[in-house]
Amino acid sequence: MINEETQGIIENYVEAYNSFDVERMVTLLHKDMLFRNISNGEINAETSGIQEFKELAEKSSKIFSSRRQTITNYSAFNDRVEIHIDYEAILAVDLPNGLKIGDKLQLTGKSVFGMKEGKISLIEDYS
């Protein structure tokens, strides 16, 4: 069972992410937060602490002209909350993998959140 406070914090984070509001995102983070992005089973980005996360979030926000995570399901396990998401974004830059400005990305994935002292202490994004 996911408590309302935790669900509200996660929804607030996703809303801030969708609106490119990095400052609001970081207000929801624990000072010792850990972030990992895992794609095809491999970690391709990792930060430790709010400042490293903020730098990555600001850098990655410039890659997209729009982006939206839509939560499709919640589940709780141990002390973690897992959300399943549908992700859609429009590129604002050309990427080295051949994707071009204006290309639309559509993915499904999940994010795992850990909480500490009423703040997000862990985010693991899986795609």
UniProtKB/TrEMBL annotation:
Organism domain of life: Bacteria
InterPro entries per the UniProt record, alphabetical: NTF2-like_dom_sf, SnoaL-like
Ranges of residues in domain SnoaL-like: 10-121
Protein name: SnoaL-like domain-containing protein
Organism listed in the record: Cohnella abietis
Source organism phylogeny: Bacteria, Bacillati, Bacillota, Bacilli, Bacillales
